[in-house]
């Protein structure tokens, strides 16, 4: 039976204005990190790998100051996986929703996996224009020996698990749609939606390369969730949208099946 495990993998502190465009600028908030393990009879698929456990050494000083990472040893992705019975070598695929430092920081921990990233994202992360460069840290994803497969559009990883294009936050951002027996459809939005306010105010998230594409991607996800009476999980929020309304993840690993 296919399952989605929600893995809490640390947090950072940051300006609320980056989460909700031009609203609450100057207010520092805790921004949680989530990765996901999709346990499937055909393959183990990890979605996103959090910020590097070596962030102090690898992140540029300006980035570390602007978004300081907080990650206890017990919150490292490999440790969280171990607690639910998986080792990094058990991971067949890693889907990076995008290549910002806080979504691919520990790719190096999964040398046996194939990394699935949109082609546009690989191109922009590898040679970004100056205005999109700040959150890309090449050293954490451009690691010798890692196997990247570039995707051109929506891609079925295994039957029932599909990466869908949701650009706007970055040029090649993708989200993941998972079909589950009991919970129905679950959408792992990545950074296509940050928090409940983005949907309810509604207000765009504060960091984007294309506002119109961002709004269209948010709509794409909203349509899937509404039409399928689905569940929506957000990378940077402990709140999630269930068919019965907004709920809060409990501490530790939560599992949907
Ligand atoms: Zn991002």
Provide structural commentary:
The protein has 257 residues and is of the alpha/beta class. It has eight helices and 15 strands. It has a single domain, classed as Ribonuclease Z/Hydroxyacylglutathione hydrolase-like (Metallo-beta-lactamase, Chain A, 4-Layer Sandwich), CATH 3.60.15. The chain has helices spanning 55-58, 61-66, 77-83, 101-104, 119-126, 138-141, 196-200, 211-227; strands at residues 3-15, 28-39, 44-47, 69-70, 93-95, 114-118, 147-151, 155-158, 161-165, 174-180, 184-188, 231-233, 239-242, 245-248, 254-256. Strands 1, 2, 3, 4, 5, 6, 7 and 15 form an eight-stranded mixed sheet that branches. A hairpin with a 4-residue loop joins strand 2 and strand 3. The model has no long low-confidence stretch (mean pLDDT 97). Zinc ion binds at residues 98, 100, 135, 169, 191.
Radius of gyration in whole Å, from Cα? 17 Å
Order of helices and strands: EEEHHEHEHEHHEEEEEHHEEEE
Number of strands: 15
Derived structural class: alpha/beta
Biggest beta sheet summary:
8 strands, mixed
Determine the CATH superfamily.
Ribonuclease Z/Hydroxyacylglutathione hydrolase-like
Parts with pLDDT < 50 across at least 5 consecutive residues: none
Fraction of helical residues: 10-25%
What integer is the average pLDDT? 97
Distance between the termini: 7 Å
Oligomer: single chain
What is the overall number of helices?
Answer: 8
Q: What amount of the residues lies in strands?
A: 25-35%
Which ligands does the model contain, each kind named once? zinc ion
């Amino acid at each position: 039976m296919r399952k989605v495990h929600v893995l809490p993998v640390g947090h950072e502190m940051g300006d609320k204005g980056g989460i909700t465009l031009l609203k609450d600028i100057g207010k520092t908030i805790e921004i949680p990190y989530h990765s996901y393990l999709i346990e499937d009879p055909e393959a183990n698929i990890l979605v996103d790998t959090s910020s590097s456990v070596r962030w102090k050494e690898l992140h540029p000083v300006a980035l570390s100051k602007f978004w300081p990472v907080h990650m206890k040893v017990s919150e490292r992705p490999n440790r969280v996986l171990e607690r639910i019975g998986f080792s990094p070598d058990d991971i067949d695929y890693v889907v990076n929703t995008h290549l910002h430092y806080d979504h691919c920081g520990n790719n190096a921990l999964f040398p046996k996996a194939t990394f699935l990233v949109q082609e546009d994202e690989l191109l922009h992360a590898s040679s970004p224009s100056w205005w999109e460069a700040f959150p890309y840290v090449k050293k954490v994803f451009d690691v010798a020996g890692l196997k990247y497969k570039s995707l051109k559009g929506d891609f079925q990883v295994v039957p029932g698990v599909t990466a869908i294009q949701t650009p706007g936050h970055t040029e090649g951002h993708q989200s993941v749609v998972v079909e589950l027996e009991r919970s129905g459809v679950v959408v792992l939005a990545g950074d296509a939606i940050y928090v409940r306010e983005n949907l309810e105010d509604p207000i765009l998230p504060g960091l984007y390369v294309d506002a119109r594409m961002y709004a269209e991607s948010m709509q794409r996800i909203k349509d899937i969730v509404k039409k399928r009476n689905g569940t929506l999980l957000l990378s940077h929020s402990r709140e999630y949208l269930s068919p019965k309304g907004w709920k809060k993840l409990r501490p530790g690993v939560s599992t949907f099946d």
